[in-house]
Design goal:
257 residues; alpha/beta; Uracil-DNA Glycosylase, subunit E; 7-stranded mixed β-sheet; 7 strands; 41% helix; globular; binds uracil
Length: 257
């Protein structure tokens, strides 16, 4: 199948049947980069700290394994009592894109992998539409590693207990772009209570790791509100154009005059 045909197929999966002009969106070049906040607090217990790049590939694998094991055994919040298993993260550990969701749902809790239910299938289709997949070039993780019962919103103490793990994952992956899907992920990472609609369409900076961050709707919300898929597509286009600029900086970037 040709590239355009594949894109058309994915857009159809999103319920989008035509290209959307991006005039309504802020151009990444002109967009103010907004500072975000770092982690709510330090981890209750020490997390692995070695840099995988320094430690080399074998060391990196060990560092990842230690972190995965810490998450697997974590009892820092009450959710460990009700989860089937902790849901760590999935994808390419060297990915340039990292997608961050809210928390595992029932299917994720059962299978131990983020975004594998209906919302996950839609997320995969959205990512494929911009050339990304968990099998090759994106890493996917959640704010919480344990499922909140009944899929309720995460509680502040749960986020505070779990967020250091996500920070370690971001530090290890060292992505060039973060895509926060949904209000909880966006508000948590940006340290704001601004509504999601106000956070879309511009580039934020995830200050702790100095990574650009783009916000879009959660795929579960898009399943409930398919009319919003068009806006999610705009967000993905925006993220992709921002990423292209990050990868190919202007010739004068980095030079002082
Ligand atoms: N929703 C999320 O935010 N994350 C998952 O892993 C699944 C559903």
């Amino acid at each position: 199948m040709s590239g355009p045909a594949r894109r058309a197929e994915y857009l159809q999966a999103l319920g989008i049947d035509c290209w959307v002009p991006r005039t309504a969106l802020t151009c990444a070049a002109a967009a103010p980069v907004e500072p975000a906040h770092g982690p709510a607090e330090s981890p209750a217990k020490p997390l692995v700290s070695a840099s995988p790049r320094r430690a080399g590939e074998a060391g990196a694998a060990e560092v990842w394994e230690q972190l995965r094991e810490q998450v697997r055994r974590c009892t820092a919040c009450a959710l460990h009592e009700t989860r089937t298993q902790a849901v760590f993260g999935v994808g390419n550990a060297h990915a340039e894109w990292m997608v961050i969701g809210e928390a595992p749902g029932a299917e994720e809790d059962r299978r131990g992998e983020p975004f594998v239910g209906r919302a996950g299938q839609l997320l995969d289709a959205m990512l494929r539409a911009i050339g990304l997949s968990r099998e090759t070039n994106v890493y996917i993780a959640n704010i919480l590693k344990s499922r909140p019962p009944g899929n309720r919103d995460p509680r502040p103490e749960e986020v505070a207990a779990c967020l250091p793990y996500l920070h370690r994952q971001i530090a290890l992956v060292r992505p060039k772009l973060l895509l926060a899907v949904g209000r909880i992920a966006a508000q948590t990472l940006l340290g704001t209570d601004a509504p999601l609609g106000r956070l879309r369409g511009r580039a934020h900076a995830f200050a702790e790791h100095n990574v650009p961050l783009v916000v879009t709707y959660h795929p579960a919300y898009l399943l409930r509100s398919p009319a919003e898929k068009r806006k999610a597509w705009e967000d993905l286009q925006f993220a992709r154009s921002l990423f292209a600029q990050i990868r190919t900086p202007e010739p004068n970037d980095g030079h002082c005059s």
